[in-house]
Amino acid sequence: MAWWKAWIEQKGVSVKSSPHFNPDPDAETLYKAMKGIGTNEQAIIDVLTQRSNAQRQQIAKSFMVQFGKDLIETLKSELSAKFERLIITLMYTPYRYEAKELYDAMKGSRDDLCGFVDPGLALQDAQDLYAAGEKIRGTDEMKFISILCGRSATHLMRVFEDYEKIASKSIEDSIKSETHGSLEEAMLTVVKCTRNLHSYFAERLYYAMKGAGTHDGTLIRNIVSRSEIDLNLIKCRFKEMYGKTLSSTIMEDTSSDYKNALLNLVGSDP
């Protein structure tokens, strides 16, 4: 990996591995926090929001070895409501969490392993999208799905450029005119993620807390899933787009241990 890419990725991470990590004392701290009458929620927050996911898995193993109990089940028995949901989400491995969240979702395979773009293939995809929508009466929806869900982000960026030259309109405008309902929403989401991933997640977080009530599932999912990837960069984009920090918005919209745990994951303001 190039040094600059590693630096950018590290800069985006809000939750990093704890240096000089030892899972045994952390497991003991959690055990004491849940032993007897009452629960020390702050101790749980201090440990689990300040460790990487890989370190949390080691803590869970140590907890089982030392105390003969499953950490997730113990946490479930001691915590409740939104705070429980957030803490349990932190304990899932990324793959297990993704499988859980996407179980009912329709999702194609996205190959983002290679940044190389074949300009001939990109042009062909653009022509195929045009032929599947604007050029015919009706829409070949499967062609749209196969291309949007089966190509890398870098490839799709080139496809969108070529498409606009062919169709004299953006891919977003074509999707809006050719599709409707949940399919339209899904396709537009793919395009938005491809064009600006950080803006997309900033928008998701903003609307999760906008207006009456909070979409806690969306809030938890986006903060936890991006905390070890690019949440710091999303925070910067959030402030640029909405004129206030993500932390201040969380403070206004949530409360108690749930709020404190979210703020720990988000980290300091940009």
Automatic annotation (TrEMBL):
- One GO MF term attached to the UniProt entry: calcium ion binding
- One Pfam short name: Annexin
Tell me the InterPro entries matching this sequence: Annexin (IPR001464), Annexin_repeat (IPR018502), Annexin_repeat_CS (IPR018252), Annexin_sf (IPR037104), ANX8 (IPR009115)
- Note whether Calcium occurs among the keywords: yes
What Gene Ontology cellular component terms go with this record?
Answer: chromaffin granule membrane; nucleus; plasma membrane
Keywords carried by this UniProt record: Annexin, Calcium, Calcium/phospholipid-binding, Metal-binding, Repeat
Among its keywords, does the record have Repeat? yes
Its family remark reads: Belongs to the annexin family.
Q: Matching PANTHER family, A to Z?
A: ANNEXIN, ANNEXIN A8-RELATED
What's this protein's name?
Answer: Annexin
- Lineage of origin: Eukaryota, Metazoa, Chordata, Craniata, Vertebrata
